[in-house]
Amino acid sequence: MEEMDYLEEVLGETKRLLSDLFTSGLVSAHDGTLEEMDKISDTCRQCGLTFAGEKLKELAEEVKANRHRMSGDFDRAVDLFCSLDQYLSLCERKLTLDKVRTWQII
Hints:
Blueprint: H1 2-24, H2 31-46, H3 50-66, H4 75-105
Helix pairs in contact: 1-2, 1-4, 2-3, 3-4
């Protein structure tokens, strides 16, 4: 059960980070947000959320690159953001179902 709680915490932190990024914008993310993206990316990889870790790393790199672009082409960043958000939602649903299944067994 501790593993599920830890995964739930990681998913929550990652979703909170995406919310912060959405609020600040994909162009003007703070340095602290970008640093936190790198840290949470590593945490996701370590706990088995490899897709989330990879996409979060790619999104951080894209946001960093967007800070220095003159053009308004943010399609890649938006695609990464949406893919990551959807993946996290699916993971949360699966975790909830796994918890319910565990409760039924006990």
